[in-house]
Amino acid sequence: MSSETENNNKIIEAPKERSWEQVLEDLRAEFDKGNVCIEHVQDILNSYKTNEQDWQKYALFDDHCYTRNLVDVGNGNYNLMLLCWDVGQASSIHTHAGSHCFVKVLDGKVVEEMYPPPKAVVEGEELKPNVESEHSPDAVLYISDEIAMHRVSNTSHSKRAVTLHVYSPPYLECKCADQRTGKLVPSGAINFFSKYGDKCDDEWTTNMASSDYC
Question: What's the whole-model pTM score?
Fold first, then answer.
Protein backbone atom coordinates (compact mmCIF):
# COMPACT_ATOMS: atom_id res chain seq x y z
CA MET A 1 0.00 0.00 0.00
CA SER A 2 1.27 3.44 -0.87
CA SER A 3 2.41 5.67 1.97
CA GLU A 4 0.65 8.58 0.29
CA THR A 5 -3.01 9.27 -0.51
CA GLU A 6 -4.65 11.69 -2.95
CA ASN A 7 -7.18 14.21 -1.62
CA ASN A 8 -8.50 17.14 -3.68
CA ASN A 9 -5.56 16.78 -6.09
CA LYS A 10 -3.07 17.09 -3.24
CA ILE A 11 -0.68 14.36 -2.19
CA ILE A 12 -0.90 13.88 1.59
CA GLU A 13 1.64 11.77 3.41
CA ALA A 14 0.03 9.08 5.57
CA PRO A 15 0.77 9.34 9.31
CA LYS A 16 3.99 7.62 10.34
CA GLU A 17 3.67 4.66 12.71
CA ARG A 18 6.60 4.33 15.09
CA SER A 19 8.00 1.35 16.95
CA TRP A 20 8.74 1.56 20.68
CA GLU A 21 12.43 2.04 19.91
CA GLN A 22 11.67 4.81 17.43
CA VAL A 23 9.51 6.59 20.01
CA LEU A 24 12.41 6.60 22.49
CA GLU A 25 14.82 7.82 19.81
CA ASP A 26 12.50 10.52 18.45
CA LEU A 27 11.61 11.83 21.90
CA ARG A 28 15.30 12.28 22.67
CA ALA A 29 15.84 14.07 19.35
CA GLU A 30 12.81 16.30 19.94
CA PHE A 31 13.90 17.36 23.42
CA ASP A 32 17.47 17.93 22.22
CA LYS A 33 16.09 20.97 20.40
CA GLY A 34 15.58 22.79 23.70
CA ASN A 35 12.15 24.37 23.26
CA VAL A 36 9.27 21.93 23.72
CA CYS A 37 6.86 21.69 20.79
CA ILE A 38 3.73 20.20 22.32
CA GLU A 39 2.28 19.14 18.96
CA HIS A 40 5.46 17.32 17.93
CA VAL A 41 5.62 15.31 21.17
CA GLN A 42 1.94 14.45 20.86
CA ASP A 43 2.52 13.30 17.28
CA ILE A 44 5.34 11.01 18.40
CA LEU A 45 3.21 9.43 21.12
CA ASN A 46 0.15 9.15 18.88
CA SER A 47 2.17 7.33 16.22
CA TYR A 48 2.93 4.39 18.55
CA LYS A 49 0.37 1.59 18.90
CA THR A 50 0.67 -0.03 22.29
CA ASN A 51 2.19 -3.49 22.49
CA GLU A 52 2.74 -5.08 25.89
CA GLN A 53 5.86 -6.92 24.74
CA ASP A 54 7.59 -3.55 24.24
CA TRP A 55 7.16 -2.22 27.76
CA GLN A 56 6.24 -5.15 30.04
CA LYS A 57 9.72 -5.21 31.68
CA TYR A 58 9.00 -1.76 33.14
CA ALA A 59 5.43 -2.54 34.26
CA LEU A 60 5.98 -3.27 37.95
CA PHE A 61 3.10 -2.91 40.42
CA ASP A 62 2.74 -2.36 44.16
CA ASP A 63 -0.24 -3.50 46.24
CA HIS A 64 -0.39 -0.27 48.24
CA CYS A 65 -0.02 2.51 45.68
CA TYR A 66 0.46 3.20 42.01
CA THR A 67 4.11 3.03 40.95
CA ARG A 68 6.53 5.21 38.97
CA ASN A 69 8.93 3.15 36.87
CA LEU A 70 11.76 5.00 35.11
CA VAL A 71 12.29 4.09 31.46
CA ASP A 72 14.64 6.87 30.31
CA VAL A 73 16.20 9.92 31.96
CA GLY A 74 16.42 11.38 28.48
CA ASN A 75 19.03 14.06 27.94
CA GLY A 76 18.37 15.95 31.15
CA ASN A 77 15.48 17.81 29.51
CA TYR A 78 12.81 15.19 30.25
CA ASN A 79 11.98 11.97 32.09
CA LEU A 80 10.10 9.04 30.55
CA MET A 81 8.35 6.61 32.88
CA LEU A 82 5.61 4.00 33.17
CA LEU A 83 3.01 4.53 35.88
CA CYS A 84 1.31 1.31 36.92
CA TRP A 85 -2.13 1.38 38.51
CA ASP A 86 -3.52 -1.66 40.29
CA VAL A 87 -7.28 -1.90 40.62
CA GLY A 88 -8.77 1.07 42.48
CA GLN A 89 -5.50 3.01 42.78
CA ALA A 90 -5.36 6.78 42.23
CA SER A 91 -3.07 9.76 42.53
CA SER A 92 -3.84 12.76 44.66
CA ILE A 93 -4.88 16.04 43.05
CA HIS A 94 -1.51 17.51 42.08
CA THR A 95 0.44 20.12 40.16
CA HIS A 96 3.34 19.51 37.76
CA ALA A 97 5.89 22.00 39.11
CA GLY A 98 5.74 24.13 35.97
CA SER A 99 6.59 21.20 33.68
CA HIS A 100 4.90 19.81 30.59
CA CYS A 101 3.16 16.48 31.24
CA PHE A 102 2.32 14.12 28.38
CA VAL A 103 0.44 10.86 29.03
CA LYS A 104 -0.26 7.89 26.77
CA VAL A 105 -2.49 5.05 27.94
CA LEU A 106 -0.82 1.70 27.29
CA ASP A 107 -3.18 -0.75 28.97
CA GLY A 108 -6.52 -0.68 30.77
CA LYS A 109 -8.46 2.54 31.27
CA VAL A 110 -7.81 5.57 33.46
CA VAL A 111 -10.05 8.38 34.61
CA GLU A 112 -8.69 11.92 34.64
CA GLU A 113 -10.32 14.58 36.84
CA MET A 114 -9.21 18.12 36.01
CA TYR A 115 -9.33 20.84 38.66
CA PRO A 116 -8.62 24.59 38.53
CA PRO A 117 -4.96 25.51 37.91
CA PRO A 118 -2.83 26.25 40.99
CA LYS A 119 -2.99 30.02 40.48
CA ALA A 120 -6.80 29.88 40.68
CA VAL A 121 -7.01 27.90 43.91
CA VAL A 122 -8.49 29.71 46.92
CA GLU A 123 -7.40 28.07 50.15
CA GLY A 124 -10.40 27.24 52.32
CA GLU A 125 -12.66 26.44 49.37
CA GLU A 126 -13.45 22.89 48.28
CA LEU A 127 -11.94 21.81 44.97
CA LYS A 128 -14.42 20.57 42.41
CA PRO A 129 -13.47 18.94 39.09
CA ASN A 130 -14.15 20.96 35.95
CA VAL A 131 -13.85 17.93 33.68
CA GLU A 132 -13.90 14.17 34.24
CA SER A 133 -13.05 11.83 31.37
CA GLU A 134 -12.15 8.17 30.83
CA HIS A 135 -9.30 7.23 28.50
CA SER A 136 -8.62 3.92 26.74
CA PRO A 137 -5.40 2.42 25.31
CA ASP A 138 -3.51 4.64 22.84
CA ALA A 139 -5.19 7.84 24.06
CA VAL A 140 -2.71 10.73 24.45
CA LEU A 141 -3.25 13.51 27.02
CA TYR A 142 -1.44 16.74 27.82
CA ILE A 143 -1.56 18.95 30.91
CA SER A 144 0.46 21.75 32.51
CA ASP A 145 -0.06 24.03 35.49
CA GLU A 146 -1.36 26.73 33.14
CA ILE A 147 -4.22 24.41 32.18
CA ALA A 148 -5.21 22.59 35.38
CA MET A 149 -4.29 20.33 38.24
CA HIS A 150 -5.47 16.78 37.88
CA ARG A 151 -6.05 13.42 39.53
CA VAL A 152 -5.62 10.14 37.65
CA SER A 153 -7.23 6.90 38.78
CA ASN A 154 -7.90 3.34 37.77
CA THR A 155 -11.53 2.89 38.76
CA SER A 156 -11.72 -0.70 37.53
CA HIS A 157 -12.35 -3.43 40.11
CA SER A 158 -10.85 -6.15 37.92
CA LYS A 159 -8.22 -4.79 35.49
CA ARG A 160 -4.91 -3.05 36.02
CA ALA A 161 -3.85 -0.01 33.99
CA VAL A 162 -0.51 1.23 32.64
CA THR A 163 0.29 4.74 31.39
CA LEU A 164 3.39 6.22 29.77
CA HIS A 165 4.41 9.69 31.04
CA VAL A 166 6.82 12.31 29.71
CA TYR A 167 7.75 15.19 32.03
CA SER A 168 9.76 18.13 30.72
CA PRO A 169 11.72 19.44 32.45
CA PRO A 170 12.05 16.63 35.02
CA TYR A 171 11.07 17.64 38.54
CA LEU A 172 11.84 16.31 42.01
CA GLU A 173 8.79 17.64 43.84
CA CYS A 174 5.33 18.97 43.04
CA LYS A 175 2.39 20.05 45.19
CA CYS A 176 -0.61 18.00 46.26
CA ALA A 177 -3.99 19.55 46.96
CA ASP A 178 -6.47 18.77 49.74
CA GLN A 179 -9.79 18.50 47.95
CA ARG A 180 -11.79 19.66 50.97
CA THR A 181 -9.77 22.82 51.69
CA GLY A 182 -7.78 23.55 48.52
CA LYS A 183 -4.59 23.69 50.57
CA LEU A 184 -1.46 22.94 48.54
CA VAL A 185 1.34 21.05 50.28
CA PRO A 186 4.73 19.80 49.04
CA SER A 187 4.67 16.24 47.74
CA GLY A 188 8.01 15.24 49.18
CA ALA A 189 10.70 13.69 47.00
CA ILE A 190 9.35 12.01 43.88
CA ASN A 191 11.15 8.68 43.68
CA PHE A 192 10.88 5.56 41.55
CA PHE A 193 9.62 2.05 42.24
CA SER A 194 12.01 0.78 39.57
CA LYS A 195 14.66 2.07 37.18
CA TYR A 196 15.15 0.44 33.78
CA GLY A 197 13.21 -2.62 34.96
CA ASP A 198 15.08 -3.10 38.28
CA LYS A 199 13.26 -2.44 41.56
CA CYS A 200 14.58 0.19 44.00
CA ASP A 201 12.97 -1.06 47.20
CA ASP A 202 14.81 1.14 49.71
CA GLU A 203 14.17 4.36 47.81
CA TRP A 204 10.49 3.57 47.31
CA THR A 205 9.84 2.48 50.91
CA THR A 206 11.33 5.73 52.23
CA ASN A 207 9.17 7.85 49.94
CA MET A 208 6.02 5.89 50.73
CA ALA A 209 6.35 6.92 54.38
CA SER A 210 5.25 10.42 53.37
CA SER A 211 1.55 11.12 53.92
CA ASP A 212 1.70 13.64 51.07
CA TYR A 213 2.63 11.04 48.44
CA CYS A 214 0.93 11.91 45.18
Answer: 0.89
